[in-house]
Design goal:
globular; mainly alpha; 0% strand; single chain
Length: 347
């Protein structure tokens, strides 16, 4: 070490180069890649007009998503083990903390695809394994959905209305996504009592996420009316309200369908409860879908009006919200059944 170099300079340079720099600057926003990749694999696996070749592509993308998630999780754990002080800074940051919701949502896409492609050939053990993973995902979703808004509202430095973006929905939508995943997990469980508990827990998750998301959407609409469009770097975030609306629609429809099957088997409430929940789920689902159509029109109109906007990590906001809105559209087409909704979902 030369006389000009101090220990502080050496220590700082070591953490600002190489793999340490990557680990130190790795934020939760990277899990949005899992969300986007995961919803693509789910769509290719469940589209109404599908082919065997699309099924195999969905498997490849599913494996790619698992690799992404494993790598991102390893880097995240390494980040907070090596730099534990960063966690406190991150969780109180007005922007970075919002992306904590992408972790359970990215994991939920893996849970869904595991149910679709792995449980049938691997048996009951795989079903109980993925149910345990879903329980973990649901707990994390609740902690994030309630904890992050609480932390943000208790910060010493206030947040102006003009600074609010649709990213405020990210921690809240995690509960809505977990609820939809719960309906899929319940369908593959061999034990009907555990399946019933999963459905009821999923209704609770849906009840936490969707009303809270509606409140944030109202605030976000107020922000747009008062301060116009967000900066061009955040412009793609106008698609984010499609997330809770599309996934909320898909989830409540799937939960109603699951309740229609599980409630009579377990003797829960009256004999007609399952049918009532199924019909109510479809009605609520199509209303949420219609509200999502409004936001889709506003988002597309915003991009047409802006014409040019820079490429950044926020572009993943195109993929997951549009993807879950598509799953809601296709589910409506399956339940009616309706060629219109099925073709629209394919488009």
């Amino acid at each position: 070490m030369s006389a000009a170099e101090s220990p502080e300079t050496t220590e700082r340079s070591k953490h600002d180069v190489g793999w340490r720099r990557i680990v130190r600057n790795f934020t939760p926003a990277w899990f949005s890649v899992n969300m986007g990749t995961g919803i693509v694999s789910i769509l290719l696996n469940t589209l109404p007009y599908n082919g065997r070749w699309l099924y195999y592509i969905s498997i490849l993308i599913f494996v790619l998503n698992v690799v992404y998630f494993t790598v991102f999780l390893a880097i995240t754990l390494l980040r907070y083990i090596l730099y534990p002080e960063i966690f406190r800074v991150m969780i109180t940051h007005p922007v970075q903390s919002l992306f904590l919701g992408t972790f359970p949502m990215g994991l939920a896409t893996i849970i869904n695809m595991f149910c679709f492609v792995c449980v049938s050939p691997w048996g009951d053990g795989a079903a109980y394994f993925i149910w345990a993973v879903w329980v973990f995902d649901a707990v994390v979703s609740i902690l994030v959905a309630i904890g992050i808004p609480f932390i943000l509202t208790t910060r010493r430095n206030g947040i102006d209305l003009s600074a609010i973006t649709a990213a405020w929905l990210l921690p809240i939508v995690s509960c809505v996504v977990a609820a939809a995943s719960g309906s899929i997990v319940a369908d593959i469980l061999p034990n009907v009592q555990i399946a019933l508990a999963t459905i009821l827990a999923s209704y609770v998750l849906w009840g936490i996420g969707v009303p809270l998301a509606m409140m944030v959407i109202c605030v976000y609409l107020q922000r747009l009316m008062f301060y116009k469009l967000p900066p061009k770097g955040m412009l793609v975030s106008v698609f984010l309200p499609l997330g809770p609306l599309g996934q909320g629609s898909f989830g409540i429809q799937r939960l109603g369908k699951s309740a229609q099957t599980i409630f009579p088997k377990t003797g829960t409430l009256s004999s007609s409860t399952g049918e009532i929940l199924y019909s109510a789920g479809f009605l609520i689902g199509i209303l949420l879908w219609a509200f999502g159509l409004v936001w889709l029109s506003l988002a597309v109109g915003t991009l047409i009006n802006s014409r040019k906007f820079p490429f950044n990590m926020g572009w993943w906001a195109f993929t997951f919200p549009l993807g879950v809105f598509t799953t809601a559209t296709c589910t409506i087409g399956q339940e009616l059944p309706s060629r219109f909704f099925s073709v629209l979902g394919m488009l």
